Amino acid sequence: MTALIASILMPGVVGPATIYSFILVMLVTGVGVLVVICRVIVGEWIERTRCRDWPTVSAVVDIASVAYCEPDSLLPPLKASSYNRYYKATLTYKYHYPEEQMGDFSRDFGSKENAYAWANSYKGETVKVHVDPRDPTCSVLREEDL
Q1: What is the tally of structural domains in the chain?
Q2: 25 and 71 housed in the same domain
Q3: Per-residue pLDDT reduced to its tens digit, 79-121
Q4: The model scores a pTM over 0.85
Q5: 39-71: per-residue pLDDT in tens?
Q6: Residues 94 and 132 occupy one common structural domain
Q7: Range of the domain at 89
Q8: Contact between residue 142 and residue 48 where contact means Cβ atoms under 8 Å apart
Q9: What are the contacts of 29-36 at 24+ separation with CB within 8 A?
């Protein structure tokens, strides 16, 4: 593989084998990127649908916070919000199933004002959360339930 990369990067050596090797490397890289993107999309879909059949309980949003975030420059961006600086609004809620538990839900915003407005609009509100019957400490607040 090192010889392949060296033959691609060496100046003055351009031939059919080098061009085809370059195309092959680009195709493999493209397939790798598509696999990562599909894995993220499928993972988000599984997260959204896995809790549909869990029992729901009422929860109260206890803490509404906003944090300023910068993209991680070492990793390629997987979401649109990963390209730019953004604000992460987090709702922390409490519920009883059978004893008191906590969970949280986060959403990304492009502006500080929008993040604070959204987060503060839910502070003290009652929301519906889905609780894993096998593990009551695991809960999901779905965006559709807000």
Answers
A1: 2
A2: no
A3: 554 557 889 999 999 999 989 999 999 999 999 999 999 999 9
A4: no
A5: 888 877 777 777 888 999 999 999 999 999 887
A6: yes
A7: 56-145
A8: yes
A9: 33/76, 36/76, 36/78
